[in-house]
Amino acid sequence: MAMKKSTSQFIAAVTLVVGMGAAAAADTNPPLAALGDPPIPADNVQTPEKIELGKLLFFDSRIGGDASVSCADCHAPKQGWGFNDPISRGYPGAIHWRNSHSVINSAYMSKLFWTGSAKSLENQAPSAALGALSGNGERDMIEARLAFIPEYVERFNDVFGDEWPKVNNVWRAMAAFERTLIHNDTPFDRYMRGDTAAMDEQQIRGLALFEGKANCIECHNGPLLSDEKYYNIGVPRADDWFENGMAQITFRYQQYAKGTTEEMYRKIKDDAGLYYRTKEKADMGKFRTQPLRYMEYTAPFMHNGMFFDLEEIVDFYDEGGGDNEFTDGTMASNKTPLLKPLNLTDEEKEDLVAFLNALSGEELKMATPELPSYAPLPAVAN
Fold first, then answer.
1. Exposure pattern of 135-163 as b/e (b: 16+ CB <10 Å)?
2. What is the mean pLDDT of residues 265-276?
3. 74 — alpha (psi -120 to 50), left (phi > 0) or beta?
4. Which of 24, 231, 318, 342 has CB atoms 3.0–4.6 Å from 336's, for a disulfide?
5. Is the pLDDT of residue 21 over 70?
C-alpha cells in the first residue's frame, strides 16, 4: 500500500498546479494576489481629523431627508457593513430595489453601485444620501442642520477651512472614513504573501479549482477578485416584485425615472441592470462583477439577494448560471457565453466553498459613535 504524502508535499504539489494554472491564465486575466493599501486621491488626502469627521457623518441620520436614515442604516457594521435582507431597506415610506453592497474594501473599486454609476467614493456618497429611495436628503437642508451643530462647525473649519459646513465636504469626509474600512489580512492574503500554513489543504484544493476547472478567475481576478466588468449571468428575478405592492411601485418608478420605453415600462419583469445607463439592448441584465472578499458576513448575494449562502452560489455556477426574463415570454438573449456547466463533484464543490471562506478574516466591528448635538447659533452683535 502506498504511503500518504506528507502535508508539506501535498501543499507543494497543489501550489505547483495552482501556479501553472495562474500562468496559463496570465495572458488574459490578472493573477490573484494579496490586497495592498487602498489608493488615496490627491485631492482628498487622508488625515486623522478628516477620518473622524467622516465617521461621525457616516452614522449621522441628519444627513438624510427626514433625519431618520444614516449611511449606517443600509451599511450596518453588524450586517457586514451592508444589509442582510435580499433587498436593502429604503427611505421611510418607500422600498429599495437592489441588494445593499458592503462598504468593506469599496476604497479599491473604480466602479461603484451595481452598474458602476459612480466612479469614486466622493461621487457615490451624494448619490446615496440624496437618492429618492435611499437617503432622500436635500443639500441645503443638510448644510442648515450641520450649521446648528457647534461641534460640526468647529470640525469642518479645522479640516476644510469652512466658515460653515459645506455639503461637498460632507462627501469628502465620508469617503476618507470609508477608505479605512479595509479587509486585507485574510487567510488568502497571508497565503499569497508566502505563509503556506495560512490556508488548509481543502482551501488550497479550492484555490486550484477556482483558477482551473471552475474558471472563476475568468471574472473574479486580481487582488480584489473582480474584473469590474459587466455580465448577464442569468440570476433569477426577485419574486418580491410581483408579491409586494410597494416593491412594484418602486420597480415601475425606476423604469420611469431611468427613461425606458413605454412598452418596456409596461412589460418588463426583471432588473435590466446596465441597460438603464447605456440604453443598449446588449446590456440588458448586466451587472458589475462582485468582489469575493468579506463574504462570510455579507449574505445574501447578487443584485437582488437571490442566494443566501456560498453553497447556493457554487451550485448556480456549476449549472452554468440561469435564465432571466425581461418582457412577457422573452428570455434574455445576451447571457454571457462564459458560463457553462462545470460538472463539479460534491467534494469539489465543498473545496471551492472552503476556498471562498478563506477570503474572509476577522469581522470588522465598530460601535456607533456618540454624535454631537444641536445648539442655538451664537448671538450676533448689532
1. bbbeeebbbebbbebeebbebbeebbebe
2. 91
3. alpha
4. 231
5. no
Greatest extent of the chain over all pairs of C-alpha atoms, in Å = 100
Report the distance separating Cα 104 and Cα 364, nearest Å.
9
Angle at 285 between CA 282 and CA 291, to 5 degrees: 115
SS3 304: coil
Question: How many degrees, rounded to 5, is the angle at CA 303 between CA 299 and CA 307?
Answer: 40
Helix 48-58 × helix 150-160 angle, to 10°: 140
Q: Is the peptide bond before 41 cis (omega within 30 degrees of 0)?
A: no
Residue with the three cell numbers 442569468: 234
Q: What is the pLDDT of residue 239?
A: 75
In this prediction, residues 258-286 reach a mean pLDDT of 91
DSSP secondary structure of 280-295:
-GGGTTBEEPPP-TTG
Closest by CA position to 28, among listed 229, 201, 190, 188: 229
3-state secondary structure of 370: coil
pLDDT tens track for 208-243: 999 999 999 999 999 999 999 999 999 988 877 778
pLDDT at 142: 97
Place of cell 463539479: 344
Strands (E), the chain: 230-231, 287-288, 325-327, 330-331
Q: How many CA atoms lie within 13 A of 46 on its CB side?
A: 15
Q: Which residues of 75-102 are buried (b: 16+ CB within 10 A; e: fewer)?
A: bbbebbbbbbebbbbbbeebbbbbbbbb
Cβ neighbours for 116, distance < 8 A, ≥ 6 positions apart: 228, 230, 274, 277, 288
* Residue-wise pLDDT tens digits, 187-215: 999 999 999 999 999 999 999 999 999 99
Please give the domain boundaries of the chain with CATH numbers for all domains: 48-178 (1.10.760.10), 184-357 (1.10.760.10)
Q: How far is CA 178 from CA 109, 182, 212, 371, in A?
A: 12, 8, 34, 18
Q: What is the dihedral of CA 123, 33, 114, 73, to 10 degrees?
A: -70
CA distance 187 to 190: 5
